[in-house]
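Morning run. Coffee first, then this:
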Amino acid sequence: MLKLIATTFLGLMVLASSATADMTETIARHEKDTSWLFISSANGLSFDGTTVTLSEVSPHIVMFTDRPRRVAEAVPVQAFVDGWTKGGDESFQKDPPNAGFTVWAYGAYQVSVVEISDPVYDGQKLSFKVKPVEGQLPKSGEHTSVFIDGGCSPWDPRC
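And here it is:
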């Protein structure tokens, strides 16, 4: 199980792993590449059992990698959604990524990992189809952080 601690970074709720080995182990167990990490935040979450919808979404997704060197930048949410199918066999469309969710719900932070697909963004709400991996998403919540494990970035010209 992921052991995560909530901290604040650049106005986003960002999770720092209390043990990097735990995060790597969990991702490896589910055969997902973590070359890139995409981070988003939202003020609300609703989940109907198959689709998670984030409301009051931060207008940018922060993406970074430490491989082969640290690169970090922010991309608009719409550009992230538009890039979902780029990259051929390494695209998120072809190989849906895992996403870690940390949600303030029912008076405590709840952590879960799901596979996400089929993003839709309408300028205010971002939704994904989800398949459970570990933990359980709450039906509703506030102050949500999403960490999407990606292989090749859709913005990387090598993809």
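The longest strand covers residues 108-121. Good start to the day.
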